[in-house]
Task: structure prediction
Amino acid sequence: MVSGPELSGEESPGAEAPGQISPPPVPPADFNSYPAAVSEFSAYPPPPPPPGWYTDVPTVAGGYPEPSGFPPHVGKPPKPEPLPVEPREYQQFYRAPAFRWWKPLAAVALFFVAWIVVSIPPVMIAIVWDTSQGKPLSMDALNTPAMFAANNVSIALAIPAALLTHWLISRQRPPWLSSIVGGFRWGLFGRSVAIATVGLLIIFVVEAALAGGVGELTWDANSLFLLLTVVLTTPFQAAGEEYMMRGLVFRSVASWFRNRWLGLVIGIVVNSVIFMLLHGAGDPWLIAYYLLVAVLFSVLVWRTGGLEAAIAIHVVNNLVSEMTLPFQPDVFAHIFDRQAGVAGPETLIQMGIMVLVAAALLWQASRLKLLRANAPAALAQPQASAGLV
Result:
């Protein structure tokens, strides 16, 4: 019997075993010779180029790039990440891969220029109105309803000025200036308003009791305008000061320092001093008061990871202190008078209540377990919405 190759255990060259398919031929080792031999392998097209290779270079049959167009993808390097990749507290949130030493300085300078520019129109409108009413243009004539409204509106315009400056310089989207979770936490704001209202109404009651009452209340031609101005613009005026001082200035100054503690201390000192100077305080008691509340608001921002609690206490404080102004022309006439002698030791009562309210807000923050540091560019995407309480 003559044995065939299928029985001998040996396969003749080129023969296929039953049920088997011959593997595709291997391309020649010399890549330069590939175009000449491409027809031999046309039945077995190669896989697509790996990710990152150029896809717009000339190719030969089968999809391989020509040797002259075979360089790896080089492309433009990605922009540095504007958000922190390591956990950062609110005041140092600019310390991200995109941080540069000049950015905080540019942010503060650009903000104040922008704020002055946007403040000019409301002030000019108030001046024109007062002049048309026969009121002389002098420093003594600043305590007018029109100037009061212009002051509130101009400070409220610090909000868009701060948000746009923050976005332009740091490349972090505007909501990241409100908090380290990338948004304004309305739930936290509402809780803080409730706590601040209780505490600051106590100040009003105590001061009224010490003074023998709130004084005579009257209704005059300016009462309605002043009432609407207080209700509609004072909350935004208070928020504007926070976005300006505890937001852009505090964060810019503190981020300039690598050491978080050094940045925290210097950031608090700088924004508190500027806050006091912007209020034009000349009385020692008022100077101490403005410095204290600025420090308290800064600590609130630091410990809660955002502006909400500081804005809440600031808004409630201003509304409570101004709620009788529309009905007290004599008191309103001295609203911007902060020179020496206008305050006294009774200011200590208000300072003490402010400390207690701030302490209550800090206690609330600890109970809510608010996020105090965040690295949104390194953590999972859902982290950006966590803590929106």
Observations:
- The chain has one domain: 90-374.
- Residues 90-374 form one domain.
